[in-house]
Design brief:
347 residues, Beta Polymerase, domain 2, Aminopeptidase, 2 domains, 14 helices
Length: 347
């Protein structure tokens, strides 16, 4: 990489090999941490480290945006930092949350979940991030989708309030920011944040005491065919695989992680959020919890089988896969009558 940082490499520069970029990113991060460790401990030194780590990640993401083909495939799109990373500060082991922001579509425009250059470029960008060691939390949304989802979810509102441009169209980001701030009701936002603070989520791994609550949660989805029916004996047998979210001692969400260690893969199954908790971000929290559990177990990929919630997963970094991509034991059990879509995400 010579003396140039990733952010200084222009669109016309030759592509940097993934292995070289991975080493550059790793070396740069370690150097920043070593400099911090050698300096006198202080609040200002810690704040400086967080800013420099964010800049280091910024430059790398900007290069990957160009190398993935997104700059060419979607010149009107933008890459946006959101959440804590959006503030321009990053702890050494924090998640890097980014949004691929797309302009609102018109009839005939390419869609990010349809085969074509746009879909390929988005998948290439997300894959490249993970390949070089950037553990991103990613979503892909149009401006209208962002506004619609934020309208009913204070967690998304909070993340988007702290957003900043990284790459792509600055015009799109400015127009989105203007529309978003016009749509947010400050008083309603403060009421929702206050309620969120009062209803702190007790998140923990499930126990046998949670079996009844899990059965109540999944029963409506089993009845309408969204979930494959599970009896009490299966929930009890697999209870250690479940994570749950509780509000005021009532279960409002659950999800399970099934390991396939031979292929270093995991399946997220039975993701369910109560209708009373829709729009609170519980689904997002469960997904992140399952992803953390999977990484702790050394798994490299997470997959889901779904018949009705494809778009929700695609907006959170999953990509289409085939039955052939599943672990061997899962392929043998695949239900061809349900024709579930296979979606996969690199961890």
């Amino acid at each position: 990489m010579n003396a140039r940082t990733p952010g200084e490499v222009g669109a016309a520069a030759p592509a940097v090999p993934v292995a070289e970029l991975r080493q550059h990113f790793k070396t740069g991060k370690h150097q920043l941490l070593d400099d911090f460790a050698a300096a006198k401990a202080s609040v200002s030194a810690a704040a400086r480290l967080m800013r420099l780590l964010a800049r280091h990640v910024d430059g790398t993401l900007q290069l990957l945006w160009t190398q993935s083909g997104l700059a060419a495939a979607a010149p009107q799109a933008a890459l946006v930092a959101v959440g804590g990373y959006g503030r321009g500060e990053l702890f050494p082991h924090s998640d890097v949350d980014v949004l691929v922001l797309l302009p609102d579509t018109r009839p005939g425009d390419p869609m990010p979940d349809q085969p074509g250059p746009l879909k390929q470029a988005i998948e290439a960008f997300i894959t490249a991030c993970w390949d070089i060691g950037l553990e991103i939390g990613s979503s892909v949304r149009t401006v209208r989708e962002c506004l619609d989802e934020a309208a009913g979810d204070v967690t998304i509102q909070t993340a988007l309030l702290e957003s900043r441009w990284l790459a792509g169209s600055k015009t799109l980001v400015r127009s989105f920011d203007k529309a978003f701030r016009a749509a947010v009701d400050p008083r309603a936002f403060m009421r929702a944040k206050t309620l969120e603070m009062r209803q702190r989520h007790n998140k923990y791994e499930a126990t046998l005491d949670d079996v009844g609550g899990i059965l109540q949660l999944i029963a409506p989805l089993e009845a309408d065919g969204t979930l494959v029916p599970r009896g009490r004996h299966l929930i009890e047998r697999d209870i250690d695989k479940f994570s749950v979210i509780e509000h005021d001692n009532v279960l409002f969400g659950c999800a399970a992680l099934y390991e396939f260690p031979r292929e270093n893969m995991g399946e997220m199954a039975c993701l369910t959020v109560s209708s009373e908790a829709q729009g609170t971000g519980d689904g997002e929290r469960l997904l992140k919890r399952i992803e953390r559990r999977a990484r702790t177990l050394g798994l490299e990929r997470l997959f889901v089988l779904t018949t009705r919630t494809e778009h929700w997963f695609l907006k959170r970094g999953f990509v289409h896969a085939s039955v052939d991509d599943l672990p061997e034991d899962k392929r043998k059990l695949y239900n061809w009558q349900r024709k579930s879509m296979v979606l996969m995400k690199k961890l």
